[in-house]
Amino acid sequence: MKSIKKVEALLQQAQRPLVMAHSAPDGDAIGSLLGLGWALRAVGKWPTLACADPVPENLAFLPGSGEIVRQSRGDEDLIVTLDSADLERLGSLYDEARFQSLPVLNIDHHITNVGFGCARLIDPGAASTAQLVHALLRQLGWPIAPWTATCLLTGLITDTRSFSTSNTDAEALRTAVALVEAGAPLAEINAELNRNLSLGALALWGQVLSNLQTQAGIVWAEVSYELQRRCGLGDPCANGTSGLVSFLASAREAQIAALLTEKADGSVEVSLRSVPGIDVSAVALALGGGGHRQAAGCALPGPLAAAREALLQRLASLLPPPTTKPLGDSNVARSLSVSS
Question: Which CATH number covers residue 279?
Answer without folding.
Answer: 3.10.310.30
